[in-house]
């Protein structure tokens, strides 16, 4: 059963719109990652459902119809209600989520234009226009807010570690590797036994498990190596088969590969028990990359370590660390301090000369 067929069963509205089904099939046949196809299917399905409620043919929709969809995304109650972990809790979707929801809609209209069914795309995107102010960049349909990732303070991190030390060895190893190697959730949960090189203390992050299909090799620390040795001995009592590194120990899925959702539940439990509710599966990656920036790693070295294709994503960790600003402030204050001291210690007749 193809990925697009599965999505049409999950979202029947996709099957009711011939062009939507055709578009999704094209992306599936092009070999896009299952999670990407799932996100595209969900985003387009939500848009089509709104179109049906409004009695609008999506093929003929205009800019005002897209604006109505954006308003709905911005004001809809969150499914978790007051329990959602965000600044403006429980109301609307985050700016980044709205941007993600618009991507499949924009791509869908690009497809309709290529098929000759439309002359224009109602979902605007930022475009470069020579002669415009601000470098010629025109704002897209929804202003893009760029926020620095959240990282825990020292006391918050210690609170998480205090709870984590009582976890089984598998969970402690996963947390250690997630920080040590700045791993994304899928990269961590997809590790296989042959991805680990204990002799050199390195991990191979396979291209098919990464966000941008870039394979990389990353190191891990000696203390994490001790945890790894302990876990491998423990894992051998569950299964001696090669394959997934991290295995479920529940009755229902005993010895099966640990799922992304199970790891998310483990981390969520840690967050609640430690009182650091914003702690998530991605926090360790943010913290590691920020720490590397604080230690003075160069931008390109951090990008290579993180598996970023472009350094734009890496810059946020440099900014978050405050390294550049701190260096500039220190240099500026040294100069100002030296000037003031010189003014105070100079002979009375030389004060006017120094001030020039």
TrEMBL record:
Keyword DNA-binding annotated: yes
Family matches, as PROSITE patterns: CB (PS51900), TYR_RECOMBINASE (PS51898)
InterPro entries named in the record: CB (IPR044068), DNA_brk_join_enz (IPR011010), Integrase-like_cat_sf (IPR013762), Integrase_catalytic (IPR002104), Integrase_recombinase_N (IPR010998), Tyrosine_recombinase_XerCD (IPR050090)
Gene3D superfamilies per record: 1.10.150.130, Intergrase catalytic core
Superkingdom of the organism of origin: Bacteria
Entries under SUPFAM superfamilies matching the protein: DNA breaking-rejoining enzymes (SSF56349), lambda integrase-like, N-terminal domain (SSF47823)
Keyword field: DNA recombination, DNA-binding
Core-binding (CB) domain ranges (all copies): 14-113
CDD domains: DNA_BRE_C
Name of the molecule in the record: Tyrosine-type recombinase/integrase
Name of one Pfam family that matches: Phage_integrase
Domain (Tyr recombinase) ranges: 147-330
